[in-house]
Amino acid sequence: MSNTLPTLPPRAAYLTWLPVLLRDTTSGWYAMIQAQYRAPNYAITATELAHAARYKNWRGANLQYGKMGAHLRTLMDYNDDAYLNGEAQSSYILSKFYPPGAIGNEHWLFVMHDEVAEALRELGWT
Fold first, then answer.
1. How many CB atoms lie under 10 A from the CB of residue 39?
2. Concatenated DSSP letters for 76-126?
3. What is the value of pTM for the model shown?
4. Longest dimension (CA), the chain
5. Could you give the CA distance from residue 26 to residue 43 in angstroms, rounded to a whole number?
6. Is residue 54 scored above 60 in pLDDT?
7. How far apart are CA 70 and CA 77, in angstroms?
8. How confident is the model over 2-11, as pLDDT tens digits?
């Protein structure tokens, strides 16, 4: 394995596929995306995502965030080698992840990619 993170799709791909993803999904996914967008620097913990989506705990948010990323990748037919080789989680298509202590954070931190935030803003979902 090369330990490289995947390239991101262009903003245009997010503009095309985010509406499809969120139209065909649960309100929890939409709530998580909105909460993350509104968080300072688009950075949020799984516990905060769970609270926003009304999931029982961070485990539910982790599970659903991963499913959301996998579904978006399927919609986009986006299969960078880093995903295929198991070097990146499906949800990397939405966010970067920082383990506790990596950037002064106490818990795992999900930081939305600028491309996703820009697409959400352009779609008027902010």
1. 18
2. HT---HHHHTTSS-GGGGTEEEE-TTTTS-SS-EEEE-HHHHHHHHHTT--
3. 0.87
4. 39
5. 22
6. yes
7. 10
8. 457 778 898 8
Are 90 and 70 within 8 A, CB to CB?
Answer: yes
pLDDT at residue 1 above 50? no
- Residue 28 is encoded by which pair of tokens? 């929890």
- Residue 121 exposure: Cα atoms within 13 Å on the Cβ side: 11
Q: How far is CA 126 from the centre of its chain?
A: 16
Specify which residues 43 forms β-bridges with. Answer: 111
Cα 47 to the chain's mean position, in Å?
14
Q: pLDDT tens digits, residue range 67-109?
A: 999 899 889 888 766 565 665 678 899 999 998 988 888 888 9
